[in-house]
Amino acid sequence: MSRLRTAGAYLLLVAGAVLTVAPFLLSLSTALKSPQQFASGSVLGPPAPPTLENFGELFGERYDFVSPIAVTAQVVAVILVGQLAFSVFAAYAFARLRFPGRDALFWVYLATLMVPQAVTIIPLYTLFTDLGLRNTFWALVLPQLFGSPYAIFLLREHFRGIPGDLLDAAKLDGAGTPRILWHVVVPVSRGIIATLAIITVVTHWNNFLWPLVITTGRQWQVLTVATAGLQSQYNSNWTIVMAAATVAILPLMVLFLIFQRHVVRSITITGFR
């Protein structure tokens, strides 16, 4: 009976893995087909023979996909630095510092997680238009630069689990709050910070709605908007669209493969099961 349960569990896991990986494999397979192969053969059939002409055309003069990748990388890098820095400061304050209204302020701030992004789009658009920042780099990064409720909540819960004796020992050695934060708290929190970094990169690498609303033209067009433009403007050329989707997915997969150990470690540290 136990063997049957184990076999059933593995079958479910394999089925889930296939359903998860299949869209990525289909995207890559389609990207490696020529338009003629895609039009004449089965959608699920493998490329015969594989070709890189879609990727060459994607980065050629006609589509110039280098610019959206560069813009997206810059936006994600600036947001990542801002999110980590401000989230660490705020989370430590909510977890370890005592001030009037601390818990009430934290829960009010956390409640903003319940507000859908679509609700804030129009006020943000109006604000950035009045400030003259529409269709600029800073319009892409400022709304997400100063931390997020999820990031602060995640770090706060981890900081609260750090033994108080460790922080007290640092205070006895004469360390102030900034020194304790950067020389004690941050080093023992590398796993959860790495996890937050991955979540931040993935979230803002895939961000679509706000860049679509606040930018026009190609100067500050991010990867997701550029890919969507290919799909709507060249609706029948699915091989190019899938090549763009593959290019967009590949950096995230590499990032996860590099840092997956930190993700697993952070799950253990934070006590999630």
Spatial separation of the terminal alpha carbons: 26 Å
State which percent range the strand residues make up: under 5%
**Mind telling me which CATH architecture of the largest domain this is?**
Orthogonal Bundle
Could you name the CATH topology of the largest domain? MetI-like fold
SS-derived structural category: mainly alpha
Spell out the CATH superfamily of the largest domain. MetI-like
Rg to the nearest angstrom? 23 Å
CATH level 1 class label of the largest domain: Mainly Alpha
pLDDT < 50 runs, ≥5 residues? none
- The counted number of beta strands is 0
Binned, the helix content reads over 70%
Structural domain tally: 2
Order of helices and strands: HHHHHHHHHHHHHH
Number of helices: 14
Tell me the overall shape.
globular
What integer is the average pLDDT?
Answer: 83
Largest sheet: none
Please outline what is shown here.
The protein has 273 residues and is mainly alpha-helical. Helix content is 75%, strand content 0%.
